Amino acid sequence: MVSGFDKAFICNDILYSKLNKIEKKYLVSIVKSKHLIKYKFINSQKYILLNDANIKNFKKEFPNFYNHFEPFKTKLLERYDYKNGINYWDWSFLRSYKLQKTDQKKICIPCKLRIKSYEDINFSLVDEKYLLTQDVTSIFINKELKEDIRYILGFLNSSVVKKWIFINNNNRGNVLEFSEEPLKNIPIKLIDWKNKFETKIYDKIIYHVDKNLSEYNIKNSKAIDLLVNDLINIKKVS
């Protein structure tokens, strides 16, 4: 999702204190890349999102938003609007907005990440009610997939997978790009549900992921590393 000029759409505490009930309905909680840490996110930011508001008279219907946007109006009108013919108070491009509004959690990572080693690659779980902007890439799990999103999260955060990403990603001066193309090439191990050994490992991975989501601990991450290593080295169904 691209606002085209983030500064104009951020709702700080001072603005929030002035808003009426209708205006508050058009606030959304945005998670930015700076909010992402190991396994989870630590904060969010209120943004104004009026693209669905069907506004007839902006000044009358949204007086506080009108006053807020007025100093930014010139720059907002200069934005590239992707030929959408948007109003100056609208976001430029709502790519993935409908998907993000669904009741699905998502796995997130900064679109570009400066790292020192593979250990700096961290995928985070973001709750359903939060939206994302263009500095974050998100992974949604297809509903027909039986694997829980927490398993995918743990698998992606395992050392062996992060090493694979570090080697195979287009590494430019230790800056990795996490767009659709490099992400879709990550080999995800899906579970053979008829294999009791695999299903036991699956349950243990989710157990340790839940622990890390509650409070990150290196011991849980090392346990996940061992479990993923066992899982991808299985050669015979038992």
What structural keywords apply?
2 domains; 3-stranded mixed sheet; single chain; 3-stranded antiparallel sheet; 238 residues; alpha+beta; 12 helices; elongated; 8 strands
Question: Would you give an account of this structure?
Answer:
By secondary structure, the chain is an alpha+beta fold. It has 2 domains: 6-77, no CATH class; 103-232, no CATH class. It contains 12 helices and 8 strands. It has helices spanning 6-9, 13-18, 21-24, 58-61, 63-69, 73-77, 97-100, 149-156, 159-168, 180-184, 196-214, 218-232, and strands spanning 27-31, 45-48, 106-110, 112-114, 124-126, 130-132, 136-139, 175-177. The protein has a 3-stranded mixed beta sheet, with no helix packed on it. Helix 8 (149-156) crosses helix 11 (196-214) and helix 11 (196-214) packs antiparallel against helix 12. 28% of the residues are buried.
Write the topology of this structure.
Layout: H1 6-9, H2 13-18, H3 21-24, E1 27-31, E2 45-48, H4 58-61, H5 63-69, H6 73-77, H7 97-100, E3 106-110, E4 112-114, E5 124-126, E6 130-132, E7 136-139, H8 149-156, H9 159-168, E8 175-177, H10 180-184, H11 196-214, H12 218-232
Helix pairs in contact: 8-11, 11-12
